[in-house]
Amino acid sequence: MKISLNWLKDYVRLDASVDEICRAVTFLGFEVEQVIRTGAPELSHVVVGEVLVRDKHPNADKLSVCQVDVGPAGGVKTIVCGAQNYQVGDRVPVALPGAVLPGNFVIKQSKIRGQSSDGMMCSAKELGVAEDASGLLILTDRPALGTPINAVLPPGDVVFDIEVTPNRPDCLSHLGIARELAAWFRQELVYPEEKFNGDTGTTVRSDLLKSVEVEAPEDCPLYTAHVIAGVKVGPSPAWLQERLTAVGLRPINNIVDIGNYVMLEYGQPMHAFDARKLGGQRIVVRRARDGEKITTLDGKERALNSRMLVIADEARPVVIAGIMGGEDSGVSEATTDLVLEVAHFKRQSVRWTSKRLALASDSSYRYERGVDPHTALEAAYRAIDLILEHAGGRAVGPSFKIGGEAPWQREIVVTHDYICEKLGFEIPEADMETAFRALELTITRTEPTPARGTAWTVNIPSWRDDLDRPIDLVEEVLRIYGTEKIPAAVVQSPGLVGDDDPVMVFNRRVTDYLVGHDFHECVNYTLRPAAELRGWVSQTAAAELALANPFVEDQSHLRPTLVLGLLDTLRLNQSRGVPATRLCETGRVFVERNGQNLECAAVAFVMAEDTARRWRQRPAADFYTVKHHIEALAVAAGIDLSRQPLVPVVGSYNGWQEGHSAAAGEMAHGWGARFGLLNLAMVKSLGVEGKVYAGIFVILPEKLGAGLERRRYADFSLLPASWRDLAVVVDAATPAEEVRKTLAKLARAAAGSRFVLENIAVFDVYQGAGLPEGKKSLAFNLVFRAPDRTLTDEEVNPVFQKIQDDLVAATGYAIRK
User: How much is the pLDDT for 540?
Assistant: First the structure.
């Protein structure tokens, strides 16, 4: 935001230096990115001279030899000049030998085509005061000869380029910055005088504007329109052009310039229509129709859709609301009658349209950050005053005000002791009250409180929507009191003994494990597109995970799993030829349980086929590879997954391939796991090549740490174990884990207290010749050990036989010999 110092001085007395003003702006909470000085620089040896004689140069057709009187600065000088726009008697700027012009151009005595020249007569561009280089700068006011040129030229300006924080849209205007500086320097703020009060008399020009309708009040809660008849469009006065030019705007004509001027003054955008160009003399604030088109002031045709708000006449849209007008309805030199629009558009609507059309403007910049609707009429009346003064005409009926600003009433109660407590040092009550008054925060009630000091009820003005809590007023007091006055003190920071949050501990542990096993850690967006959730959660859960106002369509829902984000990353790496086939991520997900979405901590990984060419290929991942990793991740949460029952995934539930994936745990117990091969069709549809194995472990945050205990030393036997192998014939559909658990239970019972069953694991599965149809053979390895002796066959064989007998009797399984 460019702010002109000369402009600021209309509202507040500023005698401080530029450096002091920059310091004040910084301490008020803004950043001065650049200071730009305009106007002529300090020019020594440049004075006012008068052309006495103008003769043709004897050796050049386009040059003249002039006698120029510079008065007490050196008398009459001979100067060769190539300009053509002057005549004898004109007074012009003369740069004498020794002068240094902008661009480090040094003036000295010289010969031009054989003719001696004692200086140079200057154009405005050569003096650095304007871009006009077509001829000499003629000084029409005829200042005294020999007067230094800096005493003749208008004073320059200082422009501050200020970065305004998003929470302070009130400072996107000269009045807003002036209000802040008035508070800092303890000066009175002078508002512009307004003469127009809304009275249009008895004249009604329905031939210029018949009606105004607002069909989308949710996006346009306030719309005002005033008719001004009989204006004359022409150049703006010099002072207005200078101010707009200083802040980077190009003057166009008096009507457009006044609209821009008031926007920069009040922060309220506005638009002037040529009343004769409005079809049917109607204004309709409505949503555009799909496919409707408008050519904006930048000359580009833009296609609209039904979510975009437009200002239309009877036949077509003429303005994209809050952003830019159409070239067919704007003011031109032939315009004689105006309709002035000042409105309030919702920031969400303007931002969405601006981003969708890739079209931004000074108006949209302000609407997106927030415009105070309570000052809209004040800004409209100010613009009408300036139009009547500089373009003539008169305000006539009808005038319209559709909707209205929401009633504003916000009060905050804050106490002296509360402010001091939050700041950590004492500020006198009088200084606090001074700060409130300086910022136009009206104190409506003052009450002494025995425990907290004086309590103030502070009325917040409508332009300070960022103030809504007592802590906000603490900041305001400190800003005006001055942060440089914070007393120096010894920083006391007592050490706090505490453990890290269990979620952070869990994330660290699982990430360390996975990275140590050659996985690449990823960080993906926590939002996913709606279409992606259909195969992972129910419609009810998906509706609950939807954002009310998503910024983009492909980030509309909270994620129910980490796997989809990892697949996106995998696809990206495959498309770039990067051999990153092992990816992992930790983060929050939302898991459905009994129609309710639970926020859980989660860790997930994916393993794709490794197609890189190596001298020795790594074994391909399979179901048991991911099962091993999931068990290790569960241990980090205090859960022994090897002791939990596994459930085969049936169908393509949650994107997993039937018969090649399993689930463990359930959210009723606060945790769950899914692992195995991802659904082949789903993976292909996402553009990922080859098979992908994956695993995800989720757990409620409050469950983390509950099962974790500090490991303590336990004795173990140094004596050798005794092994036995057992093959069991069972139905082909019987899970191996079911048989293993049954066998382990019977083995422990048979061993009793004599020795222990240390481990039992399946090591072979066989189907085929020698077995009945529909049967399979599972081979188990049983490990027995005693803590105090080496087991003998005489001890183990009877127990092993009993295990076989009990297994056949209890289950009907057959022992394969």
Answer: 85
Q: What is the rounded CA–CA span in Å between residue 129 and residue 737?
A: 90
Q: What is the pLDDT of residues 265-297, one digit of tens each?
A: 999 999 999 999 999 999 999 999 999 999 998
Please give the model's pTM, rounded to 2 decimal places. 0.62
What is the average per-residue pLDDT within 38-56?
90
Does the pLDDT at position 705 exceed 80? no
Token representation of residue 64: 């003249």
3-state secondary structure (DSSP) of residue 667: helix
Per-residue DSSP letter, 771: S
As a whole number of angstroms, the distance between CA 602 and CA 588 comes to 6
Residue from 416, 411, 410 nearest 448 by CA: 416
Q: Which residues pair with 784 in a beta bridge?
A: 722, 757
Q: CB count, 10 Å around CB of 484? A: 7
> 361: part of which helix (H) or strand (E)?
none
Average pLDDT over residues 335-344: 94
The region that residue 30 occupies, defined by phi over 0 for left and psi between -120 and 50 for alpha, beta otherwise, is beta
- Average confidence (pLDDT) over 127-144: 87
Q: List, in order, residues 6 or more apart from 366 with CB less than 8 Å away.
A: 169, 172, 263, 267, 268, 269
Q: What are phi and psi of 340, to 5 degrees?
A: -95, 120
CA dist 258 to 313, 381, 496, 741, Å? 24, 12, 61, 87
Amino acid at 418: Y
Return the higher-pLDDT residue of 277 and 489. Answer: 277
What CA–CA distance (Å, rounded) separates 244 from 345?
Answer: 25
Note whether 495 and 437 are within 8 A (CB). no
Give one DSSP letter per residue of 370-428, joined into a string. Answer: ---GGGHHHHHHHHHHHHHHHT--EEEEEEEEEE-PPP---EEEEEHHHHHHHHTS---
Per the structure block, which two tokens stand in for 229?
């008849």
H or E element that contains 816: none
Q: Which two tokens stand for residue 66?
A: 């002039």
Instruction: Please tell me the predicted confidence (pLDDT) of residue 762.
Output: 93
- Residue 252: burial class (beta carbons within 10 Å; 0-12, 13-18, 19+): middle
Residue 469: the pLDDT is 94
Distance between CA atoms of residues 21 and 24, nearest Å: 5
Residue 407 has pLDDT above 80, yes or no: no
Q: What's the Cα-to-Cα distance from 437 to each of 24, 191, 440, 703, 802, rounded to whole Å?
A: 18, 16, 5, 53, 95
User: Tens digits of per-residue pLDDT, 58-116?
Assistant: 999 889 999 999 999 989 999 999 999 999 999 999 999 999 998 889 999 999 988 99
693-713: average pLDDT:
83
Alpha-carbon Rg for the chain in angstroms: 42
As given in the structure block, the two tokens for residue 288 are: 């555009």
Query: Scanning the structure block, which residue is given the tokens 């945790």?
Result: 671
The secondary structure element, H or E, covering residue 318 is: strand 317-320
Q: What is the pLDDT of residues 192-202, one digit of tens each?
A: 998 998 888 88
Please tell me what DSSP assigns to residue 204. B
The per-residue pLDDT for range 357-375, each reduced to its tens digit, is 999 999 999 999 999 999 9
Residues forming a β-bridge with 276: none
> pLDDT at position 421, please?
92
d(CA 774, CA 261): 89
Residue with tokens 């002068």: 99
Instruction: Give residue 110's identity as a one-letter amino acid code.
Output: S
